[in-house]
Amino acid sequence: MPSAEPPLHTVLRVPPQVIGLLDVFTPDETLDDFTDFYLVMPFMGTDLGKLMKHEKLSEDRIQFLVYQMLKGLKYIHAAGIIHRDLKPGNLAVNEDCELKILDFGLARQADSEMTGYVVTRWYRAPEVILNWTRYTQTVDIWSAGCIMAEMITGKTLFKGSDHLDQLKEIMKVTGTPPAEFVQRLQSADAKNYMKGLPELEKKDFASILTNASPLAVNLLEKMLVLDAERRVTAAEALTHPYFESLQDTEDEPTAQKYDESFDDMDHTLDEWKRVTYKEVLSFKPPRQLGTKVSKETAL
Protein backbone atom coordinates (compact mmCIF):
# COMPACT_ATOMS: atom_id res chain seq x y z
CA MET A 1 0.00 0.00 0.00
CA PRO A 2 1.44 3.42 -0.85
CA SER A 3 2.43 5.48 2.13
CA ALA A 4 2.12 9.23 2.68
CA GLU A 5 5.58 8.99 4.19
CA PRO A 6 8.42 9.15 1.64
CA PRO A 7 10.95 6.28 1.73
CA LEU A 8 13.63 8.09 3.66
CA HIS A 9 15.20 4.71 4.40
CA THR A 10 17.02 5.33 1.12
CA VAL A 11 19.22 7.86 2.96
CA LEU A 12 21.82 5.58 4.54
CA ARG A 13 24.46 5.91 7.22
CA VAL A 14 22.52 8.41 9.26
CA PRO A 15 24.17 10.36 12.06
CA PRO A 16 23.18 9.60 15.66
CA GLN A 17 20.95 12.70 15.68
CA VAL A 18 18.43 11.23 13.19
CA ILE A 19 16.16 8.34 14.15
CA GLY A 20 17.06 5.17 12.29
CA LEU A 21 15.87 1.65 11.68
CA LEU A 22 17.58 -1.16 13.52
CA ASP A 23 15.44 -3.80 11.85
CA VAL A 24 12.29 -4.40 9.79
CA PHE A 25 10.47 -7.72 9.90
CA THR A 26 7.17 -9.44 9.24
CA PRO A 27 5.69 -12.53 10.92
CA ASP A 28 4.00 -13.43 7.63
CA GLU A 29 5.78 -16.17 5.69
CA THR A 30 4.38 -15.58 2.21
CA LEU A 31 3.32 -12.66 0.04
CA ASP A 32 -0.26 -13.91 0.07
CA ASP A 33 -0.31 -13.83 3.89
CA PHE A 34 1.49 -10.48 4.14
CA THR A 35 -0.57 -7.95 6.11
CA ASP A 36 1.74 -6.57 8.81
CA PHE A 37 5.33 -5.53 9.26
CA TYR A 38 7.22 -4.02 12.20
CA LEU A 39 9.85 -1.29 12.39
CA VAL A 40 12.48 -1.59 15.13
CA MET A 41 14.00 1.71 16.26
CA PRO A 42 16.29 2.72 19.14
CA PHE A 43 14.56 3.14 22.50
CA MET A 44 14.84 6.77 23.57
CA GLY A 45 12.67 7.08 26.67
CA THR A 46 11.08 10.50 26.22
CA ASP A 47 10.80 13.53 23.95
CA LEU A 48 11.93 17.11 24.42
CA GLY A 49 8.39 18.39 25.00
CA LYS A 50 7.86 16.07 27.96
CA LEU A 51 11.35 16.74 29.27
CA MET A 52 10.75 20.51 29.32
CA LYS A 53 7.48 20.04 31.22
CA HIS A 54 9.23 18.19 34.03
CA GLU A 55 12.44 20.13 34.49
CA LYS A 56 14.23 23.38 33.72
CA LEU A 57 17.13 22.76 31.39
CA SER A 58 20.59 24.06 32.23
CA GLU A 59 22.59 26.16 29.76
CA ASP A 60 24.96 23.23 29.10
CA ARG A 61 22.11 20.84 28.32
CA ILE A 62 20.39 23.37 26.05
CA GLN A 63 23.64 23.92 24.19
CA PHE A 64 24.18 20.16 23.74
CA LEU A 65 20.58 19.48 22.65
CA VAL A 66 20.48 22.36 20.14
CA TYR A 67 23.87 21.30 18.74
CA GLN A 68 22.56 17.77 18.14
CA MET A 69 19.34 19.07 16.59
CA LEU A 70 21.30 21.23 14.14
CA LYS A 71 23.67 18.37 13.28
CA GLY A 72 20.68 16.22 12.39
CA LEU A 73 19.18 19.03 10.31
CA LYS A 74 22.47 19.62 8.51
CA TYR A 75 22.47 15.98 7.43
CA ILE A 76 18.88 15.78 6.18
CA HIS A 77 19.16 19.17 4.48
CA ALA A 78 22.31 18.03 2.65
CA ALA A 79 20.25 15.07 1.42
CA GLY A 80 17.79 17.56 -0.08
CA ILE A 81 15.06 16.95 2.50
CA ILE A 82 13.01 19.44 4.53
CA HIS A 83 11.51 18.01 7.73
CA ARG A 84 8.60 20.52 7.88
CA ASP A 85 7.27 19.42 11.28
CA LEU A 86 10.03 20.11 13.76
CA LYS A 87 8.67 20.54 17.30
CA PRO A 88 9.63 19.38 20.81
CA GLY A 89 7.45 16.26 20.49
CA ASN A 90 9.41 15.18 17.41
CA LEU A 91 12.77 15.30 19.18
CA ALA A 92 13.47 12.12 21.13
CA VAL A 93 15.85 12.33 24.09
CA ASN A 94 17.38 9.53 26.15
CA GLU A 95 18.83 9.46 29.66
CA ASP A 96 22.28 10.44 28.34
CA CYS A 97 20.82 13.63 26.81
CA GLU A 98 21.27 12.22 23.31
CA LEU A 99 18.76 13.61 20.81
CA LYS A 100 17.26 12.12 17.65
CA ILE A 101 14.97 13.82 15.13
CA LEU A 102 11.74 11.82 14.67
CA ASP A 103 8.70 11.67 12.41
CA PHE A 104 9.43 12.34 8.77
CA GLY A 105 5.77 11.99 7.77
CA LEU A 106 5.64 15.55 6.38
CA ALA A 107 9.19 15.61 5.02
CA ARG A 108 9.60 16.60 1.38
CA GLN A 109 12.29 17.30 -1.18
CA ALA A 110 13.60 20.84 -1.06
CA ASP A 111 12.75 21.59 -4.70
CA SER A 112 9.17 20.30 -4.67
CA GLU A 113 6.03 22.42 -4.37
CA MET A 114 4.74 22.75 -0.83
CA THR A 115 1.44 23.18 0.91
CA GLY A 116 1.18 26.09 3.34
CA TYR A 117 -0.34 24.37 6.33
CA VAL A 118 2.36 22.12 7.67
CA VAL A 119 4.31 22.31 10.90
CA THR A 120 2.59 22.69 14.25
CA ARG A 121 1.46 26.33 14.34
CA TRP A 122 3.69 27.62 17.13
CA TYR A 123 6.86 26.45 15.35
CA ARG A 124 5.74 27.45 11.84
CA ALA A 125 8.02 29.73 9.82
CA PRO A 126 6.47 32.99 8.57
CA GLU A 127 6.94 32.01 4.92
CA VAL A 128 4.83 28.89 5.55
CA ILE A 129 2.07 30.96 7.16
CA LEU A 130 2.22 33.31 4.18
CA ASN A 131 1.62 30.29 1.94
CA TRP A 132 4.76 30.36 -0.17
CA THR A 133 4.60 27.25 -2.36
CA ARG A 134 8.36 26.99 -2.63
CA TYR A 135 10.49 27.42 0.44
CA THR A 136 13.85 26.20 1.62
CA GLN A 137 15.31 24.12 4.42
CA THR A 138 15.51 27.23 6.58
CA VAL A 139 11.86 26.65 7.54
CA ASP A 140 13.35 23.97 9.81
CA ILE A 141 15.85 26.48 11.19
CA TRP A 142 13.00 28.78 12.21
CA SER A 143 11.35 25.87 14.04
CA ALA A 144 14.67 24.98 15.68
CA GLY A 145 15.04 28.58 16.86
CA CYS A 146 11.56 28.53 18.39
CA ILE A 147 12.44 25.28 20.17
CA MET A 148 15.75 26.68 21.46
CA ALA A 149 14.01 29.79 22.82
CA GLU A 150 11.44 27.58 24.54
CA MET A 151 14.22 25.56 26.17
CA ILE A 152 15.73 28.78 27.54
CA THR A 153 12.53 30.43 28.82
CA GLY A 154 10.37 27.39 29.55
CA LYS A 155 7.58 29.02 27.50
CA THR A 156 6.41 28.86 23.89
CA LEU A 157 7.94 31.85 22.10
CA PHE A 158 5.16 32.50 19.57
CA LYS A 159 1.81 31.19 20.82
CA GLY A 160 -0.77 32.33 18.27
CA SER A 161 -4.40 31.24 18.47
CA ASP A 162 -4.67 30.85 14.68
CA HIS A 163 -2.35 31.33 11.70
CA LEU A 164 -2.97 35.10 11.42
CA ASP A 165 -2.53 35.61 15.15
CA GLN A 166 0.64 33.53 14.90
CA LEU A 167 2.00 35.97 12.33
CA LYS A 168 1.15 38.90 14.61
CA GLU A 169 2.94 37.25 17.55
CA ILE A 170 6.03 36.73 15.39
CA MET A 171 6.11 40.34 14.22
CA LYS A 172 5.79 41.66 17.76
CA VAL A 173 9.33 40.29 18.15
CA THR A 174 10.87 40.50 14.66
CA GLY A 175 9.17 43.73 13.65
CA THR A 176 7.24 44.21 10.42
CA PRO A 177 9.22 43.43 7.26
CA PRO A 178 10.42 46.00 4.72
CA ALA A 179 8.49 46.65 1.50
CA GLU A 180 11.03 44.60 -0.48
CA PHE A 181 10.07 41.49 1.51
CA VAL A 182 6.35 42.10 1.00
CA GLN A 183 6.85 42.48 -2.76
CA ARG A 184 8.38 38.99 -2.94
CA LEU A 185 5.27 37.37 -1.46
CA GLN A 186 3.58 35.08 -3.97
CA SER A 187 0.05 35.48 -2.66
CA ALA A 188 -1.88 38.69 -3.39
CA ASP A 189 -3.92 38.13 -0.22
CA ALA A 190 -0.72 37.82 1.82
CA LYS A 191 0.65 41.03 0.28
CA ASN A 192 -2.50 42.97 1.09
CA TYR A 193 -2.59 41.59 4.63
CA MET A 194 1.03 42.54 5.28
CA LYS A 195 0.56 46.05 3.87
CA GLY A 196 -2.34 46.60 6.27
CA LEU A 197 -0.36 45.73 9.40
CA PRO A 198 0.76 48.51 11.76
CA GLU A 199 4.49 49.16 11.72
CA LEU A 200 6.30 47.36 14.55
CA GLU A 201 9.91 47.75 15.65
CA LYS A 202 12.15 44.73 16.15
CA LYS A 203 12.57 43.84 19.82
CA ASP A 204 15.91 43.28 21.46
CA PHE A 205 16.08 39.48 21.85
CA ALA A 206 18.06 39.89 25.06
CA SER A 207 15.03 41.53 26.67
CA ILE A 208 12.92 38.45 25.90
CA LEU A 209 15.57 35.82 26.64
CA THR A 210 16.68 37.27 29.95
CA ASN A 211 18.30 34.03 31.16
CA ALA A 212 20.24 33.38 27.95
CA SER A 213 23.93 33.98 27.41
CA PRO A 214 24.92 36.69 24.90
CA LEU A 215 26.12 34.00 22.47
CA ALA A 216 22.79 32.14 22.70
CA VAL A 217 20.92 35.38 22.00
CA ASN A 218 23.17 36.14 19.04
CA LEU A 219 22.58 32.69 17.55
CA LEU A 220 18.81 33.00 17.94
CA GLU A 221 18.85 36.39 16.23
CA LYS A 222 20.38 34.63 13.21
CA MET A 223 17.92 31.71 13.32
CA LEU A 224 14.75 33.72 13.86
CA VAL A 225 15.12 36.09 10.92
CA LEU A 226 11.81 36.93 9.24
CA ASP A 227 13.32 36.83 5.75
CA ALA A 228 14.17 33.19 4.96
CA GLU A 229 16.84 34.24 2.46
CA ARG A 230 18.79 35.91 5.28
CA ARG A 231 18.24 33.18 7.85
CA VAL A 232 21.25 31.11 8.89
CA THR A 233 21.52 27.52 7.58
CA ALA A 234 22.13 24.49 9.81
CA ALA A 235 25.73 24.22 8.58
CA GLU A 236 26.35 27.91 9.31
CA ALA A 237 24.70 27.73 12.73
CA LEU A 238 26.96 24.84 13.76
CA THR A 239 30.02 27.05 13.28
CA HIS A 240 28.64 29.72 15.64
CA PRO A 241 30.83 30.51 18.69
CA TYR A 242 27.95 29.34 20.94
CA PHE A 243 29.00 25.76 20.08
CA GLU A 244 32.76 26.29 20.29
CA SER A 245 33.22 23.69 23.04
CA LEU A 246 31.25 21.05 21.09
CA GLN A 247 32.32 21.54 17.48
CA ASP A 248 33.53 18.30 15.88
CA THR A 249 33.16 17.66 12.16
CA GLU A 250 35.11 14.39 12.07
CA ASP A 251 32.18 12.16 13.03
CA GLU A 252 29.70 13.67 10.55
CA PRO A 253 28.67 11.20 7.81
CA THR A 254 28.14 12.51 4.30
CA ALA A 255 24.50 12.60 3.25
CA GLN A 256 23.49 10.81 0.07
CA LYS A 257 21.09 12.77 -2.12
CA TYR A 258 17.55 11.52 -1.67
CA ASP A 259 16.41 9.24 -4.53
CA GLU A 260 13.17 10.80 -5.69
CA SER A 261 12.33 8.10 -8.24
CA PHE A 262 10.22 6.25 -5.66
CA ASP A 263 7.88 9.24 -5.40
CA ASP A 264 6.95 8.96 -9.07
CA MET A 265 6.03 5.27 -8.98
CA ASP A 266 2.45 4.43 -9.86
CA HIS A 267 1.36 0.95 -8.73
CA THR A 268 -1.80 -0.96 -8.05
CA LEU A 269 -2.52 -2.04 -4.48
CA ASP A 270 -1.20 -5.55 -5.18
CA GLU A 271 1.96 -4.13 -6.73
CA TRP A 272 2.56 -1.90 -3.71
CA LYS A 273 2.10 -4.92 -1.47
CA ARG A 274 4.71 -6.84 -3.48
CA VAL A 275 7.17 -3.91 -3.42
CA THR A 276 6.74 -3.45 0.34
CA TYR A 277 7.14 -7.18 1.03
CA LYS A 278 10.35 -7.24 -1.01
CA GLU A 279 11.69 -4.21 0.88
CA VAL A 280 10.96 -5.85 4.24
CA LEU A 281 12.65 -9.13 3.29
CA SER A 282 15.71 -7.43 1.79
CA PHE A 283 16.37 -5.10 4.73
CA LYS A 284 19.75 -5.80 6.31
CA PRO A 285 20.05 -4.77 9.97
CA PRO A 286 23.35 -3.28 11.16
CA ARG A 287 26.03 -5.74 12.23
CA GLN A 288 26.80 -3.90 15.44
CA LEU A 289 24.70 -1.76 17.74
CA GLY A 290 25.91 0.94 20.08
CA THR A 291 28.93 1.97 18.04
CA LYS A 292 30.01 5.57 18.18
CA VAL A 293 29.26 6.14 14.50
CA SER A 294 25.64 5.26 13.83
CA LYS A 295 24.95 2.50 11.31
CA GLU A 296 21.22 2.86 11.52
CA THR A 297 19.20 3.28 8.37
CA ALA A 298 17.23 6.50 8.20
CA LEU A 299 13.49 6.19 8.54
Automatic annotation (TrEMBL):
In terms of superkingdom, the source organism counts as: Eukaryota
Pfam families, alphabetically?
Pkinase
Name the chain's protein.
mitogen-activated protein kinase
What is the organism field in this record?
Gulo gulo (Wolverine)
Mind telling me which residue stretches traverse the membrane in this protein? none
Q: Which PANTHER family match?
A: MITOGEN-ACTIVATED PROTEIN KINASE
Going by the record, the broad EC class of this enzyme is transferase
What is its cofactor? Mg(2+)
> Which Enzyme Commission numbers does its entry carry?
2.7.11.24
Q: Name one GO molecular function term.
A: ATP binding
Ranges for domain Protein kinase: 1-243
